[in-house]
Write a structure and sequence with these properties.
Low-confidence stretches: none
CATH topology of the largest domain: DHBP synthase
CATH superfamily of the largest domain: DHBP synthase
Structural class: alpha/beta
Strand order of the largest sheet: 1-8-2-3-7-4-6-5-9-10-11
Shape: globular
Mean pLDDT: 95
Number of strands: 16
CATH architecture of the largest domain: Alpha-Beta Complex
Bound molecules: threonylcarbamoyladenylate, magnesium ion
Order of helices and strands: EHEEHEHHEEHEHEEEHEEHEEHEHE
Largest sheet: 11 strands, mixed
Radius of gyration: 20 Å
Distance between the termini: 52 Å
Length: 338
């Protein structure tokens, strides 16, 4: 199959909507990362997503909608706090986990009785959903286990030949996937950190609990609240170590282990010895979020075998960058003073 990369013209959006309505899958831009979209109600279409990505069947998909009114038919009950949260943060990078209605097949929800729902702000995504007139199941459009795609080219690199089309909406502005939350009365449980931060969520909830899976290793057989958290994610081929400390500590640590295919992943303003080859990934958390997945892909392209990464801040969207890097490194962190 030839994979077409299409500019998001009205005509191409209509063409992609036709593909989706006839049971196919399409790469679509969102403000966070690219998604691989199919009719959330169509079991055989959703199966194509799992096959193209080589995704484990117990990892549920997020269902994307174009207006808040579409929520009703996807869920059996919507707590008051969920309405407040959705009205405040939608459209945008937030996914809410709610009890699923029978309209959502179990293949879409990874066998769970809940469904993750998101109303994206990206214009192309919303036009595509509207044109389909259907909720679209869409995981990140990468091969399972590799870094999420933030450009149409990344999607093409991973899925060329196994999907019919990708809508090219340019680079994703946020760069890390949506914040995923569930509700326990007036309390919000953070299942995956993203652009909507813990502080943002605290403005609407009596408390925000950070689920264990955000910062700790979850074993592969464990029953977890968000199955995606138990898989080693976002892994480039290189072996990654997070180095948490000052630039002096970082430089010494890397110098002692430097070799021909070793790279340092550092902040734009960092200066390290000329002997250390480096890749830069921004100075603040927003820039780091936007670039993290692209630099992990770049590390592979240049043949990095070992990458030592300066640890990002854990505040705001920084927690999302830190969480993705923890996973990319398989939770290998070296701390100054340890
Ligand atoms: O920003 C995003 O969320 C992107 C774009 C395309 O919207 N999508 C995305 O999907 O990142 P995916 O499939 O790569 O990640 C979905 C995450 C997984 O960790 C999954 O386990 C969790 O959301 N999730 C989905 N449905 C869930 C549910 N019912 N209960 C708990 N976790 C759920
Ligand atoms: Mg993903």
């Amino acid at each position: 199959m030839e994979t077409k990369v299409l500019k998001p013209t009205k005509e191409n959006i209509r063409y992609c909507a036709e593909l989706i309505k006839s049971g196919d899958v399409v790469g679509m831009p969102t403000e966070t990362v690219y998604g691989l979209a199919a009719n959330a109600y169509d079991e055989s279409a959703v199966k194509k997503i799992f096959m193209a990505k080589k995704r484990p069947a117990d990892n549920p998909l997020i269902v994307h909608i174009a207006d808040i009114g579409m929520l009703k038919e996807l869920t059996t009950s919507i707590p008051k706090i969920a309405i407040t949260v959705c009205e405040k943060f939608w459209p945008g990078p937030l996914t809410v986990v709610l009890p699923k209605s029978d309209k959502i097949p179990l293949i879409t929800s990874g066998g769970l009785d809940t469904v993750g729902i998101r109303l994206p702000s990206n214009k192309v995504a919303r036009e595509l959903i509207k044109e389909c007139g259907l909720p679209l199941a869409a995981p990140s459009a990468n091969l399972s286990g590799s870094p999420s795609p933030t450009t149409a080219e990344h999607v093409f690199d991973d899925l060329n030949g196994s999907i019919p089309a990708i809508l090219d909406g340019g680079s994703c502005s946020i760069g890390v996937e949506s914040t995923v939350i569930s509700f326990e009365n007036d309390i919000i449980r953070l299942l995956r950190p993203g652009r909507i931060s813990v502080d943002d969520l605290k403005t609407v909830a009596s408390d925000v609990i950070i689920d264990k899976g955000v910062l700790e290793i979850i074993s592969n057989d464990a029953k977890v609240k968000s199955p995606g958290m138990k898989y080693k994610h976002y892994s480039p081929k290189a072996d990654i170590t997070l180095v948490d400390g000052s630039i002096e500590f970082f430089e010494n640590y890397v110098s002692e282990r430097n070799s021909i295919d070793t790279y340092a992943l550092i902040f734009d303003d960092d200066n390290t010895s000329e002997d250390i080859k480096s890749i830069k990934y921004g100075n603040n958390s927003e820039q780091q979020a936007e670039r993290i997945f692209a630099v992990l892909r770049e590390a592979d392209k240049i043949g990095a075998k070992r990458v030592f990464a300066r640890c990002p801040s854990k505040d705001g969207i920084g927690l999302a960058v830190y969480n993705r890097m923890l996973r990319a490194s398989g939770f290998k962190v070296v701390k100054e003073g340890d």
